[in-house]
Amino acid sequence: MKTLIRFFLLGALFTLNLQIQAGDFQVKKTKSGVTVNYKGQLLTRYVIDQSNKPFLWPVIGPNGNEVTRAYPMEKREGERHDHPHHRSLWFGHQGIGGFDTWHEPASGRKTNLGSTVHREFVKVQGGDTAVIVTRNDYMGGGKKLLADERTYIFKVEKGQRIIDVNIIFTAEHDDCVLGDKKDAGFSIRVATSMDVDSKKGGRLINSHGVTDKDAWGKRAPWVDYHGPVNGKTVGVAILNHPSSFRHPTPWHVRTYGLFTANPFGLRSLRQGDDGSFTLKKGESIVLKHRVIFHKGDEKAAKIAEAFKQYAAEN
To answer: In total, how many domains does the chain have?
Structure first.
């Protein structure tokens, strides 16, 4: 009888393990956040304990190489070592309730520094896709200023690695002023070899065909940044969903590798009058983006077609 019970329990555990491991994505909680693997290989890590804000690093592209800069998490030869607050893939804002969650102490800023503090994981799940849902509090002066809920959905389709990032900001604690700031928004810092200023073939282009430094501040449904990593051309496209706050977003994109969708800095990005606004207690806004890590340039990756598909989704 005991043997039968033991056999039954082992079979049940084996079945449960198969269910947990089913699909190409495996996720694991760690002390530092969450690790996301694809087919047993690292895709990215969601890091909550190394800065004044959460971030994803590294991000492994379709050729198996990192497509975001390692600095300041690691100092590597051949990379730019500027802007230590540019942490791979992140959200920050220089003016939330009067406090700055874009910069951090290493940036040299001494006043009004805030932080985005991880509150809890709502969902961490692997399978055919990987999903991370997390809640955060924006802190400043010892007070909670704003809250967000972030949903990251990781997919691989047609050789492209895709991350859908939806961020719901809610004034849970009180009214909150979001300022018109140049340094604000959903951001990526691309690998140094990809950036335009490295003059190795890097290029940024928006959906209207505007390129490189001329794309700065312009509104567009999407922007693509591509260039070489270890001798192969790869790209990163950020798509701004039509339901996202102030779509089409202005873009704070720089030829040295910064890549930011910034709907907050209208005057700062020369897109109109002061874009500051007050989010009343209980109110919410949503930022919704799809990030596509691809081979080749924006044409080879069919980013224009990908945006049409994305725009048709809820």
So the answer is: 1
Range of the domain at 64: 26-74+83-311
Beta-bridge mates of residue 287: 167
Instruction: Classify burial at 169, counting beta carbons within 10 Å of its beta carbon; exposed 0-12, middle 13-18, buried 19 or more.
Output: buried
Predicted confidence (pLDDT) per residue in 208-222, tens digit: 999 999 999 999 999
Report residue 109: phi and psi, to 5°: -80, 130
Residue 122 inside a domain? The answer is yes
DSSP letter assigned to residue 219 = B
* Residue 194 phi, psi dihedral angles, 5° rounding: -85, -20
Rounded distance between C-alpha atoms, residue 27 and residue 152, angstroms: 12
Max CA pair span of the chain = 78
CATH number at residue 134: 2.70.98
Q: Give me the amino acid identity at 108.
A: G
Q: What is the pLDDT of residues 74-88, one digit of tens each?
A: 999 999 999 999 999
Cα-to-chain-centroid distance, residue 51: 15
- DSSP secondary structure letter of residue 66: B
Within-domain flag for 181? yes
* CB-CB contact of 27 with 38 (8 Å): no
26 and 257 in contact (C-beta within 8 Å)?
A: no
